[in-house]
């Protein structure tokens, strides 16, 4: 049997554990096998040889760095993020906080170009960089979703990707900036050390890219936390709650968090691939059998989002929709 090629990680708190990595230039059936295994075991993997030019991410990262370097009062003009725009430390509407500031935008050209007016003194350049990034990363998301559908032997190979491709898809773009927190030491457990608290992503699939600063950790099924070594040349794929439901629990949405760094600022950019609001989220018929009955009640993406926003960041919102 072929195993995902692991990047060994050794820390004081965990044993050496491999983060699955999938080279997308390998032969298709091997890639599919590696992706399915990684989604079942981790709900997380890294992709390399993804075909996205490094300039695409560098341009948006540069624009974002320029924004985050502005004085606080200028950045506030792009906020607050209720739910979209700029915010500092506040996460969501229910009192969650973290040691970060961020931009949260809807991943569509109109919204991005409107929002760019308050983000950049050159809004055309900012929206070009953001829209270009979204276009490439959406393609990568859809390619990966098609490989997953093929690996699950579902009839319609575009069953997942068509949800994201819809012009009214509720996909998001988030850029997080975690300033270095000088006072913390490694493995500090004080709230100052938490960049973004433990949670799963509600959407179908998240594509994350970061600079070379560590901080991201994923939780394995045995509750062990594993640090993810940063790699600005790769993209990290995160299975979201909606994909867990669509696959009737075969793929698991991975819980993850970000710890603050004491020496250098971390910057990450996430594309959250989501369906349109009135889409029904329910296990695919091929994955429901008498031996594997449906684990979830049917719900719309809008109902699920409403539930997510009514709960705290770390709550396991899927519990509300179990059969
Ligand atoms: C987690 C994943 C995405 O970053 C996000 C987050 C959203 C927010 O920051 O506004 C949420 C969080 C995320 C899940 C529960 C709710 C909503 C904050 C929060 C407490 C943009 C998303 O879609 O869900």
Automatic annotation (TrEMBL):
In its UniProt record, a GO molecular function of this protein is: metal ion binding
Query: Please, which domain of life does this record's source organism belong to?
Result: Eukaryota
Tell me a GO biological process for this protein. gibberellin metabolic process
The Enzyme Commission number assigned here is 1.14.11.13
Record bears the keyword Aminoacyl-tRNA synthetase: no
Pathway it works in: Hormone biosynthesis; Plant hormone biosynthesis; gibberellin biosynthesis
Fe2OG dioxygenase domain: residues covered: 168-283
Sorted alphabetically, which Pfam families does this protein's record hold?
2OG-FeII_Oxy, DIOX_N
Family to which this protein belongs: Belongs to the iron/ascorbate-dependent oxidoreductase family. GA2OX subfamily.
Q: What is this protein called?
A: gibberellin 2beta-dioxygenase
What is the native source organism of this protein? Erythroxylum novogranatense
